[in-house]
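Running low. Any example?
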Amino acid sequence: MKNRYFVIFMILSSGLLTAQNGFSDILAAGVEAGERFSNSYMTPAAEAFNYNLSSGWYDDAKVLKPGKFKIQLKAQATFSPSDRKSFILDPEEYEEIIQRSYDNTNNPPANIEVVFGDGSSSPRSVATALGENVMNQQLIIRSREATTGFLLQEDVINLPNGIGNEGLDVIPTAFIQVGVGIGAGLELKGRIIPEVTIDEAKTDLYGVGLQWELSQLLSSDQNGFPLNISVLGGLTRLNASYDFEDGAVVDGENQSIETKINSFNFSAIVGTNRKVLNFYGGLNYNLGNTQTDLLGTYSFNSNTVIFPVAATVEDPFSVDTNVSGFLGTVGAKLTLGAFNVSADYTFGEFSTASASLFFRI
């Protein structure tokens, strides 16, 4: 079976659309166990992507003059903390969950056993969507007849790898961002990636922001004021989907994963007021939500522990992740006539480096 990682969080990432199939096979352990695993596996990547999308809204505390326009090509990379690249999987916890699910069926009485592929039942670290497994990891789920201990069924589930298995240590994004001065010290901003479809993966991104320069209120002679000060609010929305091929264990129809990310950013910004080289910094508050739905019909035509006879599950589960927190940004911008280059670093639980090349009209 192919190695695999959960495609949704990489759909936007600089052409990294090498999605792998088969993640839905985790449903062979049952819907409740599959949802528990998916939460542990997906949440760090959902958080990282949310922090990534909240970054990069500003490169100066000074807004554009009325009628002025700029267009930017932005690239960003969010770094993954080491402790978010793996989580501890305890087979006994899954054994309890699967036993409970089994007992709620009409199956003959049986005892459930869950171990790793090497036979160990001790908790161990396995990859999240941001990490990688040092070696291929499997869960073996066995059901034994309650009285005799006779083996009724054994399922082997290959646990998915993360982006670390592809040699990646960051969540990268790239998009176009524009700004236009609308007067009254305001600059309207927008960011977009038109809908892109590559193989079974589809994504689009859009965002809108508004920056208000306060320094014009503090001095009647702006040219003599040493600093620019402004506030900004921005919203970014990412929609992404990936259509699965039928898994080796779980057949079905219209199987897909859909993700919606909403990331809000509120910033207070201060920057120098020079002609060529300027420095800026900001205090940011990020508020975001990621909802990922496993959709479609999943048919268990072959025996599994939880589904020993034919069974069908539709739209099995949804994983919801919320993030919030303060972040700090420091950066610099070089102005070369109409062209500008900027780079900054936003530090927090998930830190993000951002760079842009743009020109003004």
Observations:
- Confidence is low (pLDDT under 50) at residues 1-22.
